[in-house]
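Task: sequence design from structure.
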């Protein structure tokens, strides 16, 4: 949900990236897009630590029925974050 123009609010303004995706997106397209954006975000913000909120509602078979992802797509994105060798707090949700 949301728009590409959503940039956060309050103290988080301009520290938010919203990536609106079409329903039905699959692993290859999702992981390529998200990993490319993660790299750009890292270059822009140069973080010392990363907090990643990983939901499962994009997985195929989820009641939300939005996307058709497998754990492979989410794992590929996580692999990108781990490759940065920064402290990483990984949250489920």
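Answer:
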């Amino acid at each position: 949900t949301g728009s590409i123009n959503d940039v956060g609010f309050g103290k988080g303004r301009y520290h938010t990236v919203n990536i609106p995706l079409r329903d039905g997106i699959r692993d290859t397209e999702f992981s390529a897009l998200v990993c490319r954006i993660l790299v750009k975000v890292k270059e822009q913000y140069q973080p010392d630590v990363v907090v990643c909120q990983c939901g499962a509602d994009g997985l195929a078979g989820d009641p939300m029925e939005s996307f058709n992802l497998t754990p492979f797509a989410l794992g590929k994105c996580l692999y990108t974050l781990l490759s940065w060798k920064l402290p990483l707090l990984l949250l489920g949700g």
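The beta strands are 50-54, 88-92.
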